């Protein structure tokens, strides 16, 4: 379709009528801004007319018809400068600079390889702030076509109104408005169709090869400016397309609609259309699958807003430093010291934020209130970070973050909620373990694990396909685990008491440590078709579990205070420690020393187990053990005051077990050595 609005008359053909006055189109262009957007002048059909009479008048709609239909469907509160979003989140001036520069370069680079950009990030990574800042920068450059900010909580999430919302904003470009007007006039039902029909009419079929008849030039000053080729008096350069931005696509109602929009955009960017698309969202599985497919086809560039990378952490620290300075200048009467906040408190807040922009901005928003002294508010923040009780009457500084986490958990389907909370608790109690191994250790079907965590991708990183073999489940930020562990914050979702889940992990680890390679490996089962050629062998997965158990079970045990008697008897005292001989090089000496001291403390008062862990001879067999090793080793001190003591250069010994199942354990700086009675002569 040509750029110019077709000159076809907007009036229906009728016989001439002397008593009828035909209304001309009411909108006219009175000028254009450097950005290419139209400046409109409101006019009536008979501006300044007076002292005359009309009879039997029939008016025919012109361009206003397209305006009315589209504007009525549009979500006018979802735009860049909507008052409903005021004040919108924005990037601090010194944050996300490299990513913002990359996005601008992508949009202004005619050699770009793709016309769609997906920016993904977990809850609190700063996606909306980045989207707002990027959109404002493109607006200054004259590159912004439209921006839509979804919000589930504010009901800006109706998929049937998305196309109209974008078209309504693009109409400020006169050529696109002419297209919309003609479409609505020629096909009044076009906006009443489904999303795919609306998109086809308003974006796929009619979109001209350029919506903005301008060229982007870079002046010698280094600033980007917009000017027409005629104004520059230079030959036309390749034109830079307009940018359409969708923020929070994951909050658009229904996953089906979200995926449909991605499919529609993919179809559009395959053509020679002057639109670039930026979509920001959480890394929900269905979205990641759709965007990764687009990436594989060369249609999409993917950027992840990381929390734990050095740039993000540095950005958050700069933000906090600047905001603390601003607040100290705002409340000078509250300060009693020149250096505020104290360095140790500032470092604590930076460490707790750990690259998480929402966490940092939430604390600053709480601090920047006037309902109490600055010192009192800072003390409340420190208490919240430490997980300590808040002062009487104090509000929770993390309430906003908690509300987001509660929303995520409340949206869990009833069928999986209890299982999800169970697995979340296990993740809290369990050191990181590749997802495949996690499912095999706990004897939970891999598909069940993935299904349960499917709706939690905004707070937990869940790998895909062959990455399940190597990568663990990972919480994006400690604020979520702190939330789950604190019943005052998470309420019925709280998983603060982890011992039942620790028992389960420990039982599973000791089963692995006590099994032979073949017997345990043969019992491992998973859907091998998921991994294709990368499918691991049962034996390799078993060895992964064996390494995990030998490395981590000792520390998990020591985290249990006052363990249940049946757990002590059947699990930790029911294990044959001679079986550790094959993994002695894997067992961490320091953690194992703490475990032996813990094991001694939980068995010494149980009559049948009072000598289960010992350093003094209780039998002739013990005497033989000790005699062999006493000249090269010292007895391990079982006093719990020495739990943090480093293993000295000289080894320490202890006897664990009863009778012929007794194991002589030598702990030296770099490994743990296990001997049975048959091997005592080798000591």
Automatic annotation (TrEMBL):
Domain of life: Eukaryota
Positions of the Nephrocystin 3-like N-terminal domain: 103-205
Region annotated Disordered, chain positions: 1-38
InterPro entries xref list: NPHP3-like_N, P-loop_NTPase
Record's keyword terms, sorted: Repeat
Protein's name in the database: Nephrocystin 3-like N-terminal domain-containing protein
Taxonomic classification: Eukaryota, Fungi, Dikarya, Basidiomycota, Agaricomycotina
